[in-house]
C-alpha cells in the first residue's frame, strides 16, 4: 500500500490561489548566498547601523572608512551566487504568476537567477555613481582603482558584513585614498540608497503601479522595519488584498498578514522548484 500524497502547505495553497503576485524581498532571501543580514529575529540591529548619506557626503573620513571596508568586502560579495530562494521566485515568474518583484536587496541575485521583472528599490551595488556629473561605472572597475591606490590594504581580510561591507575593526582609515570621478573630480558613491537618502520617486511610483495590478502580495525574507519597504505592505492592506510573509522572526506588518511562514526562505519556497 502506497502512502497518500502530502497535503499542500498553506504557502503553496496561497500561491496557487493567486495569479498576479506582487513579491517583496529582503535580506533573508540572500543570507544562504553568504550575504549577512542586518537584523535579528526581533527586528533589532545586529551591528552598528549602515553609513548615513549626509555623513558620507560631508565627511571625508566617513568616505574613507566606507570604501576601505568595501574594498575588502566586495571581493566575496561580488562573487555571491543565487540560492534556491532566488531560483524558486524566478520559476514563479516563469510560470506567469508574478506581477512584479520588488527587492530591498542591492545584490542583483534575482536577476542572476533569471528573474526578468525586478525593481531594485534601494539601487544596485554593482554600479558606482558620481554625485557631481552622474556618470556611472561598474563596481568591478572601481575596485581595481581602489586597489591600485591602496595596494597595502589588499593584504587585509575581515569578516563579511551586509551589502559588501567588511568588519574592519580598529583600522586607521586616514591613510586610505578614495579616487574621485575621472570625468569631473566629484564624489563617488555606490549606486544604492543610503540611510537618510530618499528612494527616487519614479521607482516608488512604478512599484505602486504594479502593486495596483496585483491580486495578492508575498513578502520573502524581510522584517519590513525600513519604511521604504513597509509602505507597500500598507498599500496592499489598504487595497484589502491578501498578504503572505516568509520570515524568520517578527515583521513590522505581522498584524496585516493573511499568512505567515516562519521558515528559511529557500525551504518555504522549495515547492516552486
TrEMBL record:
Binding site for Zn(2+): 130, 133, 181, 184
Reactions that this protein is recorded to catalyse: N(6)-acetyl-L-lysyl-[protein] + NAD(+) + H2O = 2''-O-acetyl-ADP-D-ribose + nicotinamide + L-lysyl-[protein]
PROSITE patterns: SIRTUIN
Residue stretches spanning the membrane: none
Species whose genome carries this gene: Bradyrhizobium betae
One term of GO molecular function: histone deacetylase activity, NAD-dependent
Keywords associated with the record: Cytoplasm, Metal-binding, NAD, Transferase, Zinc
Cross-referenced SUPFAM superfamilies: DHS-like NAD/FAD-binding domain
UniProt-annotated binding residues for NAD(+): 104-107, 221-223, 247-249, 265
Primary role: NAD-dependent protein deacetylase which modulates the activities of several enzymes which are inactive in their acetylated form.
Taxon lineage: Bacteria, Pseudomonadati, Pseudomonadota, Alphaproteobacteria, Hyphomicrobiales
Protein's recorded name: NAD-dependent protein deacetylase
Cofactor-binding details, from the entry: Binds 1 zinc ion per subunit.
Amino acid at each position: 500500500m502506497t502512502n497518500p500524497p502530502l497535503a499542500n502547505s498553506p504557502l503553496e495553497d496561497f500561491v496557487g490561489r493567486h495569479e498576479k503576485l506582487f513579491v517583496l524581498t529582503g535580506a533573508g532571501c540572500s543570507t544562504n548566498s553568504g550575504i549577512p543580514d542586518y537584523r535579528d529575529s526581533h527586528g533589532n540591529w545586529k551591528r552598528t547601523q549602515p553609513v548615513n548619506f549626509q555623513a558620507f557626503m560631508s565627511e571625508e573620513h566617513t568616505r574613507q572608512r566606507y570604501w576601505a571596508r568595501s574594498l575588502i568586502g566586495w571581493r566575496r560579495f561580488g562573487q555571491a551566487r543565487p540560492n534556491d530562494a532566488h531560483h524558486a521566485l524566478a520559476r514563479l515568474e516563469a510560470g506567469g504568476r508574478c506581477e512584479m518583484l520588488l527587492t530591498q536587496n542591492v545584490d542583483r541575485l534575482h536577476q542572476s537567477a533569471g528573474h526578468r521583472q525586478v525593481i531594485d528599490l534601494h539601487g544596485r551595488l554593482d554600479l558606482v555613481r558620481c554625485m557631481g556629473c552622474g556618470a556611472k561605472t561598474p563596481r568591478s572597475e572601481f575596485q581595481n582603482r581602489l586597489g591600485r591606490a591602496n595596494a597595502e590594504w589588499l593584504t587585509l581580510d575581515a569578516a563579511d558584513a551586509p551589502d559588501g561591507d567588511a568588519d574592519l575593526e580598529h583600522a586607521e582609515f586616514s591613510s586610505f585614498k578614495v579616487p574621485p570621478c575621472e570625468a569631473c573630480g566629484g564624489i563617488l558613491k555606490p549606486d544604492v540608497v543610503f540611510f537618510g537618502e530618499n528612494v527616487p520617486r519614479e521607482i516608488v511610483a512604478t512599484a505602486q503601479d504594479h502593486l495596483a495590478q496585483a491580486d495578492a502580495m508575498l513578502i520573502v525574507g524581510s522584517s519590513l522595519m525600513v519604511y521604504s519597504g513597509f509602505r507597500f505592505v500598507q498599500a496592499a492592506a489598504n487595497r484589502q488584498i491578501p498578504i503572505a510573509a516568509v520570515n524568520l522572526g517578527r515583521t513590522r506588518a505581522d498584524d496585516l498578514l493573511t499568512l505567515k511562514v516562519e521558515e528559511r526562505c529557500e525551504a518555504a519556497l522549495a515547492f516552486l522548484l
